[in-house]
Amino acid sequence: MAKKSFPLSDVYRLLETGPVVLVTTAYKGKANIMTQSWHTMMEFEPPLVGCLTSGRNHSFHALVAAKECVINIPTQELARQVVGIGNCSGRKLDKFKRFKLTPAPASRVEAPLIAECYASLECRVVDTRMVNKYNFFVLEVVKAWVDAARKNPSTLHHRGKGSFMVAGKTIRLPSRMK
């Protein structure tokens, strides 16, 4: 197999495998949505998620102030909204109205769920030690919601430069038993 040099600035395109998500925040009575693909599971119980949010984003400031959010997992059917949300700012725009998405009340946080998304994870910020240096938040999932009617949802996975991959078929392999 012949390999060739790959640009360091594009390494993220090889490692980003988690689904693209829509993060909702609420601050001073205003809800916002941000597209995000830089997140990682950090612990199973309690579920901890690490996420990177640019300090230039409107959602960054809401997340710092409110210390809570909802991670909503969209499916392929919402691809155009996902990209559109990622290409505009919520500072002066109501993204729920603009992209025809439905805010639904959460049970443990102020930020809304997105009704059209396959799953929604209500989160609280539990560690901010890496925010100042890396814009990296550690979130604890305090409530999880999933649309049980959707089996094997087609989630989006960012490949960089306007390219996305859609999750494919599910395969089962032998694994450790609990």
Overall average pLDDT: 92
What overall form do the CA principal axes indicate?
globular
The portion of residues forming beta strands comes to 35-45%
The number of distinct structural domains comes to 1
Helix content: 10-25%
Per CATH, the superfamily is Electron Transport, Fmn-binding Protein, Chain A
CATH topology: Pnp Oxidase, Chain A
Judging by the overall fold, what is the CATH architecture?
A: Roll
Which H/E pattern describes the elements?
A: HEEEEHEHHEEEHEEE
Please describe the biggest sheet, giving its number of strands, its sense, and whether it closes into a barrel: 7 strands, antiparallel
Q: N- to C-terminal separation?
A: 38 Å
**What's the number of extended β-strand segments?**
11
Q: Output the structural class.
A: alpha+beta
Name the CATH class: Mainly Beta
Low-confidence stretches: none
Q: Strands of the biggest beta sheet: in what spatial order? A: 2-1-5-8-9-4-3
Rg to the nearest angstrom? 17 Å
Helix tally equals 5
